[in-house]
Design a protein that fits this description.
binds zinc ion, alpha+beta
Length: 178
């Protein structure tokens, strides 16, 4: 039994959402890895790719385009979520899984939560990324700190005025919940 199969057995036990086919998981991860490899080769971004999977089919793809688009948020997972949502005509990816060549950074994990994606399959870990000079691990450590101890300060301004708009929004009969 290989490491990935042992891992998938664990996932199957934890997910309680049915069978995760090892061949499918490896197929999807290979695609994510390939997208990342291409991103690096074309110079569009770092070697990070991701795919969104629903019912065993790839329904969205993305790769890192930070360099090409001068966009620090253009991570593979974000681009894959945008592609899947665009194709689905929905901001809700409930029932989908994401395969990403590297463990998600806090931004991408947040987007995964917002998209209601149910499970993350990842290739290399953020510890491996840290060894290669990427900041994912440091950002996770920052987020775990109380707000006042983080490197990026936060200051509330016009809180009541801002909240009034939120209250008005919540009262709109045509509001689309998300
Ligand atoms: Zn990310």
């Amino acid at each position: 039994m290989t490491g990935v199969h042992r891992t998938l057995d664990t996932v199957m036990t934890r997910m309680e959402t049915g069978h995760v086919d090892a061949a499918l998981a490896e197929h999807c991860m290979r695609r994510a890895i390939e997208l990342g490899r291409r991103a690096a080769e074309t110079g569009e971004g770092g070697p990070f790719g991701a795919v969104i999977v629903r019912d065993g089919a790839i329904v969205g793809e993305g790769w890192n385009q930070v360099i090409a688009s001068n966009d620090p948020t253009a991570h593979g997972e974000i681009m894959a979520i945008r592609d899947a949502c665009d194709r689905a005509g929905s901001f809700d990816l409930q029932g989908c899984h994401i395969y990403t060549s590297g463990e998600p950074c806090p931004m991408c994990l947040g987007a995964i939560y917002w998209a209601r994606i149910g499970h993350v399959f990842y290739g290399f870990s953020i510890h491996a990324a840290e060894i290669c000079g990427f900041d994912d691990q440091r950002f996770y450590q920052q987020l775990a700190l109380p707000q006042e101890q983080r490197d990026v300060g936060q200051t509330q301004v016009l809180g009541e005025e801002a909240f009034a708009v939120l209250q008005q929004y919540l009262g709109r009969p045509d509001r689309v919940p998300y």
